[in-house]
Design goal:
By secondary structure, this protein is mainly α. The protein is built from 17 helices and no strands.
């Protein structure tokens, strides 16, 4: 048997990949991500079918606005937790607790500020920016949801940094289970509406945060003088925060442009296709959850090269599988969402291949941030990506509607893959030389 294995091409290489802790941890996070994705899909399918394209489009804009504001308000805290906790978790637990308490305090302060200004300016955003006055009340609901996402991400990022991937997956799957249960209850009782769907979506993450606190050692809450590590924390985070803000805006700018330029019905078609491809960013998040702390712990270029090879094979395999399943996904759209969404098919294909490009870029992105510690690189890349989406996106959406918006996203993700890849290959080549 051993001789047979030795004769199989690349058997030893793939055997090494399967035997690594990265593969095992990735299997856990991917399993959780798949479950989470299925439950999230059920939520959106129910919302799309029972709200219709116009109302569903408005709901999607609110959720995207909520996640954008959350990303802006994060200030690089999530990435900072993943970067610093593994370094001090075992060597200096007292210092690690200071980072944890500081991160939580920053998130609470930011949420209070966002809630005050968000409630005050929701009407201005709805009327003057989106040109859709009916978004006023839904946007206010979304501002409450920012707190849930900020706080729940504290729990999940802490569990990620501690490499507790079962708990990381469990919180996210559990929250989506609760969302689906509440939506089914509202449907059964006849109370399902745009507002009730949004309240369910926005409030459940607060529960996820509370559960997360019970899974994390709460001794960090007693840490003293936590602001003494603020300088170290935010010196690293400033670059992460800068490119995160730009990336958060540019990654959602296509939807905001579509909201401004398209009808509510076309916006619903675009939003439906956008939700259909959300499984890929969730997989990206799962892969990044495992890869990030591993990259931060590598101490040589040789180890980096070996790790990049293994992780790149993994993401390419997932991308190939995803591409092979696209005909099934296109066929499912009208069957799951309703025939009124059949025009979402071509939009879905463009957005899906954009997300596959995003997926295969994960190893090089993680290498730049965590191995080379060059988050500043992504500031400039984010500026380029923002300009592509803003300028090209406005032109293509004005001229070609929803297809133009989706094409812009694809072009932007290709740029986001190619440039970091070339940078990493150049750095490796220089080191080896």
């Amino acid at each position: 048997m051993k001789n047979v294995k030795n004769r199989i091409p690349f058997y030893s290489f793939f055997g090494e990949i399967v035997s690594t802790s990265t593969f095992r941890h990735s299997s856990i996070t991917l399993t959780g991500t798949i479950l989470n994705g299925v439950l999230g899909a059920v939520f959106y399918i129910l919302a799309a079918r029972f709200l219709g394209p116009a109302q569903f489009g408005l709901m999607s804009v609110v959720i995207i606005t909520q996640t954008l504001v959350t990303d802006l308000g994060d200030l690089g805290v999530n990435t900072g937790l993943v970067n610093f906790l593994p370094r001090y978790l075992h060597s200096d637990w007292e210092k690690a607790k200071k980072f944890l308490k500081l991160a939580l305090e920053v998130k609470v302060i930011v949420f209070v500020i966002i809630l005050i200004f968000g409630l005050a300016f929701s009407d201005y955003i709805a009327i003057n920016i989106f040109k859709k006055p009916e978004l006023y009340r839904p946007l206010q609901i979304g501002m409450f949801g920012v707190g849930g996402l900020l706080l729940m991400s504290f729990s999940t990022q802490t569990l990620q940094a501690k490499q507790r991937f079962f708990a990381w997956s469990g919180i996210q799957v559990g929250t989506n289970v609760i969302r689906v249960i509440f939506i089914l209850i509202f449907l059964a009782l006849g109370y399902f509406s745009l507002h009730s769907a949004l309240w369910v979506y926005m409030l459940v993450p607060f529960l996820g945060f509370v559960i997360g606190l019970f899974l994390i050692s709460r001794g960090f809450l007693k840490a003293k003088n936590e602001w003494s590590v603020a300088r170290e924390f935010f010196t690293y985070n400033k670059w992460v925060a800068a490119f995160t803000i730009l990336a958060a805006i540019s990654s959602r700018l296509d939807t905001f442009i579509a909201t401004r330029l398209l009808s509510a019905n076309d916006l619903g078609l675009y939003s439906a296709a956008n939700q259909m491809v959300k499984a890929v960013p969730m997989i990206v998040s799962a892969m990044g959850t495992v890869i990030a702390p591993k990259m931060a712990s590598l101490d040589s270029v040789h180890k980096l090269i070996q790790y990049l090879k293994k992780t790149q094979v993994m993401v390419l395999g997932l991308a190939t599988l995803g591409a092979a399943l696209t005909p099934v996904a296109v066929w499912l759209i009208p069957h799951l969402l309703g025939r009124e969404y059949i025009a979402s098919g071509p939009i879905f294909l463009l957005l899906f291949f954009a997300m596959l490009s995003f997926l295969i870029s994960v190893p090089t992105h993680m290498a730049i941030i965590y191995y080379y510690s060059k988050p500043s690189f992504f500031l400039w890349l984010s500026i380029l990506h923002f300009l592509i989406i803003a300028i090209l996106g406005w032109f293509l959406t004005s001229k070609y509607g929803v297809v133009g918006a989706a094409t812009t996203v694809l072009l932007g993700q290709v740029v986001n893959f190619v440039i970091p890849l070339l940078w990493v290959l150049r750095k490796i080549s220089q080191t080896k030389a």
